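Q: What does the assembly look like in three dimensions?
Context provided by user:
Components: two
Sequences:
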Amino acid sequence: MWKFVVRRLLITFPQLILLSLIIFLMAQAMPGDALTGLVDPNLSFEAKEELREKLGLNAPWHVKYAEWVSGVVQGDFGESFRFKMPVTELLEQRLWNSFLLGVMTLVFTYVIAIPLGIISGRYNDTILDSSITGYTYIGFATPLFIFALIMLFVFGYQLQWFPTSGSVAPGLQPGSMEYILSKFNHLLLPALSMALIQTVSTVQYLRSEIVDTKQREFVITARAKGASESRVYNKHILRNSLLPIAAFFGYEISFLITGTLFVEQIFAYPGMGLLFLESINLRDYSVVNAVVLLFGAAAIFGALLSDIILSIVDPRIRIK
Amino acid sequence: MEMKQIEAQTQDPTKSPSGLKILWRELVRDKVALFSLILLLLIMIFVYGVSFILDQDEIVKVDLFAIHQPPSEEFILGTDYGGRDVFGQLIIGTRNSLTIGFAVTLISGIFGIAFGLIAGYFGGHTDNAMMRVLDFFQVLPFTMLVIVFVSIVPKYTILAFCLIFAAFSWMGIARLIRSKALQEKELDYVQASKTLGTSHPKIIFKEVMPNISSLIIVTLTLNLAANIGIESGLSFLGFGFPESTPSLGTLLSYATNPQTLEFRWWIWVPAAVLILVLMLLVRNVGEALRRATDSRQRRG
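A: Here is the predicted structure of the complete assembly.
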């Protein structure tokens, strides 16, 4: 067990270093540097060069990389030239919003996916199963952004059940009951849009897993012993089929990251995804780099977490 | 039963049908898939044919006297915020989205297949090292990196877009091909070929690859559906095609304007429906092919 965890961790560190190198090279390829936007544009070329030298911007790349990494490790991502404030402070506000959206989406995903998967697997080849399979088939072919647009159009504009933009109604006191309710209300539609598309793979997985397990010998044995149908499902089949799903949530982070880009854009929800898109359009590259680095690291740690949980749940993985 | 007998008579009984033949036979037998394939071909013929007549420069020209017109006889599907004909943009957009879909699927496919075959065929340390690289690419936030690269590339062209897109989307097919190649290399024909002294590249590409061709075709078809969706998503966010080249996603991106979303359905609904239909059709074909590769799920 511990051997597997250590080996898996040994893969994670090179991944993080590679990610940071890619982002650093991206930053080098981006037009302008830390000085752009900070100084008076009327300054002469020589004066600017002198400033660059003093700030260490003309240093060789490995020195710059080392400096950048040591800054990042201490939580210093530089300045955002659009907001004229440290990127870290800017991220703090947005990170919280995206985190809430992510958690809400995961909750919805599991609340929807698990019952549907169980019904579909237990009563396979009935009308109920075919309609759930139909939903997953269409859901698999539907791009998230189209589905989110339709949700916004139907429930936001036509029925007006939900707010259509923002993360909270203006003018509310943070911490008050109304504030929390309003935040929750703003989260529902974006999170539901993402969850309804994200459930698809989990439902399919759970269904085929249950249909497979149903024919195993230990299930037949359980039936032969006279175990009731609900006991066969809850104690024997689901225990085998549900655990891997619990482990997959780390992998879901990659999907959530892509999802936040589209959903936050469509619902004008001020999170990291929207910040990323705004910043790249305004060429505020220090923010872009910070967001890519954070999301990339989140995906790497998510995969790590899932692999470790899976190895606990499923011993076969450890032996490999 | 009758069909089977006739087939058995017409074919050489000592020879089992090739993988491609089985795929085709299953596809024709699956009514939904066959219908999807025919409809898909009709859409493609129509879109590529009509776009020959349509002049792209004419369609993307701004006409300030015809802004946001609802559908009429002059403009079948109305106009957008620049007074441009939505119907024309829809046709050209579909053509562009399909072309990009094919190009990206092909480029990422070629690389992914080669990567998977080599990793799987050699196995051992080679496989281990190559899979670590693959794992890394797979965990990267794909959409974000494509967006960043698209916006920092100095000379942004459609080819550049295809290459960036493909650079981050070869992993899925590579993983599948690799696991199949791992099984395949244990088979007798590969061992025999090795004993005869055939070179590795020849075994990989002339002997192993043709044997897994059905898996390759299935995966490429399913990837095509996914790539059409991703491309329209990137164009929707504004990081797909260079400007002035309409795509299906571009039409949908007009719907980020609440006014357009709420009151001007003719701009975004047709594009949304078209993307959904295209993806479903391609998937239907792909799923039918996938069933055909699995002998347990075959119909005949």
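Follow-up: Residues 86-122 of chain B form the longest helix (37 residues).
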